[in-house]
């Protein structure tokens, strides 16, 4: 269940009372420790003992080393299967927290309180937990649902513009794959601010939750949520490998541009639809220079993607605004044409 927090966090406190945890762990990073934890602690009312665990911020820390440290902390602090982990943070915290909670002693309960737009509309929902390994994003993980997701839009006021824009990409994606009205409203915004996006957060979260509810283990329709991610994740991984991180949402925006062009090559959308989608995404997102990466390197990473089977690269591609199909197997030459199309954008 997804629930917006009231100003005094009554709903969270009442829910913790129902769970009756033996101990509470609150996972934060440096950013949420400073900006969000004080708000949570000022409103948290519980008789259960609690511990605060802080990890370093950043995608580069979402790895097995950090997971091991967290497992060791749980062991030292005698976490049991009646414990509760509250993940207070962005996508790294909710991905990492869900992963370590779902694996320690074969799993104990966790709640997500996403603090970034990306985490609210994407990472905290759907029960996908995971860590990166050998520069491959989320290659190790579990399917494990949080007990509940609480969101508090005022947390967005602590974000810088890049982080806010990063999360906005997932909102645009939700409109493209499932709700034309949502896309039209979002793509018509003049700017991306906490106040401007707040009215649309609930709908974006609901779209993802509706898709996940139909297909929790990603055997069919849930795959449409991967639109923009097949190419986007590959590019993000290449930047991660060279130690030059790019925001996840900017990689997804690049991926959506490329995969909209792939939809054109596959005959799923016409030139007008493709141009319309691409131009609107470009209005919000800067061009990412990928000229230093060979197409072959990007393709190799896509072949490694956990969503692919039998050596085929599977894509989820739009067939219009608000519609998406999955398991679209495309040839390497089509992907090469699309990557060249994107690289040439910087020239035009």
Number of strands: 10
Radius of gyration: 20 Å
* Alpha carbon gap, first and last residue: 46 Å
> What is the makeup of the main sheet?
4 strands, parallel
SS class:
alpha/beta
Low-pLDDT windows of residues: none
Task: State the order of secondary-structure elements, H for helix, E for strand.
Answer: EHEHHEHEHEHEEEHHHHHHHEEH
Give average pLDDT, whole number: 95
Adjacency order of strands in the biggest sheet: 3-2-4-5
Features of this protein?
alpha/beta, 4-stranded parallel β-sheet, two-stranded parallel ribbon
Describe this structure in words.
- The chain is α/β, with parallel strands linked by helices and 348 residues long.
- It contains 14 helices and 10 strands.
- The chain has helices spanning 10-19, 30-35, 37-43, 64-76, 91-103, 117-123, 161-178, 180-187, 194-214, 229-241, 248-265, 271-284, 295-304, 332-345; strands spanning 2-4, 24-29, 50-55, 84-89, 109-114, 128-133, 136-143, 149-151, 314-320, 323-329.
- The strands form 4 sheets. A 4-stranded parallel sheet has the order 3-2-4-5.
- Strand 6 (128-133) and strand 7 (136-143) form a beta hairpin.
- The chain is globular, with a radius of gyration of 20 Å.
Layout of secondary structure:
Elements: E1 2-4, H1 10-19, E2 24-29, H2 30-35, H3 37-43, E3 50-55, H4 64-76, E4 84-89, H5 91-103, E5 109-114, H6 117-123, E6 128-133, E7 136-143, E8 149-151, H7 161-178, H8 180-187, H9 194-214, H10 229-241, H11 248-265, H12 271-284, H13 295-304, E9 314-320, E10 323-329, H14 332-345
Parallel strand pairs: 1-8, 2-3, 2-4, 4-5
Antiparallel strand pairs: 6-7, 9-10
Helix pairs in contact: 5-6, 6-7, 6-9, 7-8, 7-9, 7-11, 10-11, 10-13, 11-12, 11-14
